[in-house]
């Protein structure tokens, strides 16, 4: 329910079109006291009047005027104010440090062909990789978020691998963790001043999703098992997976990157506010 005395954290914010052709904002807020989530609507007039920086993920805001709709279980916001502005993500030094950690790890690969392939794809679009988010709204949706998510996946993989009884090649597993989201450096665009994320229209002209991009990249170079792990990493076809893990008789290696990716997306540094305590 709506509490005008409470402070709220912005969880995510998107803008879409109504049937009438006007803009409508959808925003999820979390009450910082009781952690309850409030679903909010903002009409075009309100969007035009409020400063863009108010909607940044991780911001702490206070609702000034609004009404609660019992039928639709949402809040129509007319005005709000900023209490504390969130970070946009990792700073330049932090991004460079994480990038170098990723490069150093890949350089330890014994499979020379695989090592060179992964390094090439990390280095050729370095500047885009340094700022890329890992998602628009769901997790690691901040500057440098893709690097954080990728390294988290590697950390989980290194812990889990000894328990896999050699059912997946170790370096192929690590490569799949590194490349499963590599297409996101093209799929998303991020404003490095405000932290706002949107989909790239140019990417949509050529590709269906980042999964398709990563799958194609690896398959074209003959890394078929890596390609298959990437194709399955979203788990279900209605979540964007090219291979649905509900299919029967899949080999075990298909499942592992999906579970590793899910661990990072749910338990990692998922929100930009996590960086205040974990990156200092």
Automatic annotation (TrEMBL):
<protein>
    <submittedName>
        <fullName>HD domain-containing protein</fullName>
    </submittedName>
</protein>
<feature type="domain" description="HD">
    <location>
        <begin position="146"/>
        <end position="266"/>
    </location>
</feature>
<dbReference type="GO" id="GO:0031125">
    <property type="term" value="P:rRNA 3'-end processing"/>
</dbReference>
<keyword id="KW-0378">Hydrolase</keyword>
<dbReference type="InterPro" id="IPR006674">
    <property type="entry name" value="HD_domain"/>
</dbReference>
<dbReference type="Pfam" id="PF01966">
    <property type="entry name" value="HD"/>
</dbReference>
<dbReference type="InterPro" id="IPR003607">
    <property type="entry name" value="HD/PDEase_dom"/>
</dbReference>
<dbReference type="InterPro" id="IPR050798">
    <property type="entry name" value="YhaM_exoribonuc/phosphodiest"/>
</dbReference>
<dbReference type="GO" id="GO:0016787">
    <property type="term" value="F:hydrolase activity"/>
</dbReference>
<dbReference type="InterPro" id="IPR006675">
    <property type="entry name" value="HDIG_dom"/>
</dbReference>
